[in-house]
Amino acid sequence: IQLTSLARVTDQASCFAAVGHHLVIGTHDGNLLSYTVNASKGTLVPALSLVMKKVLGRGRVKVEKVEILPFLSQIVTLCNGKIDVLDLRSLESLSSVVVPKGAAASVLGAAPQTTVSSFCCGFMAPLPRGQPDLREFRIVVLVKRRLLVYKIPDLSAPVKEVSLAESPLAQLEMRAGHCYMIFKKLYVSVSLATDELTPLLQFSPKTN
Q: What pLDDT does 203 receive?
């Protein structure tokens, strides 16, 4: 999709996700834009049709991440430290991830850490051919040094919590029950079944 196709969009994009004929754009002022992508035979540039615009209601701050779940017809968003799940076609809000306060909140004078810095979605096992087993689907959110694992549709409490030795610089993705992320000196995978952390790559001062 060429950016010229979005020339009439006045909102400044901060992130996007695309699956099939669906394109969802998050903006710098906390909105979601839903488009259909129509690729006519013989044309190089697909036509984009704006279906709907949604104000997430998390303040006029940028949407940091959007992910489309085509098998559920849902969207997961991260905006202002909060995770929301919306219907893909109507952009109706379905639920929000509830983050428990954690052990830090029990310490006298300590502020609870409930701000989500990243998330990823995936299945606990490799996908078989045919219909995916939604019982194995998880949303994993990163809060400081905690990985909180949620099971759709109940996002009121995590089904599992994995403690980390330090806060990751970036949480990348989830594949087959493992969450991949970058620490200051390591690229690692964390097993969501056993909590085992496996270093995959060590960064040296000369590593770019």
A: 83
Mean pLDDT of the 13-24 span: 92
Residue type, 8: R
Contacting residues for 157 by C-beta, under 8 A, at least 6 apart: 98, 100
Rg (CA), the chain: 19
How would you class 19 by CB atoms within 10 Å of its CB: exposed for 0-12, middle for 13-18, buried for 19 or more? middle
Contact 56, 32 (CB under 8 A): yes
The predicted pLDDT at position 206 comes to: 62
Give the mean pLDDT of 95-105.
78
Length of the chain: 208
Q: Give the integer Cα–Cα distance in Å for 186 and 25.
A: 31
Partnered with residue 88 across adjacent β-strands are none
**pTM of the model as a whole:** 0.84
Q: 92: left (phi > 0), else alpha (psi -120 to 50), else beta?
A: beta
State the pLDDT at residue 169.
Answer: 85
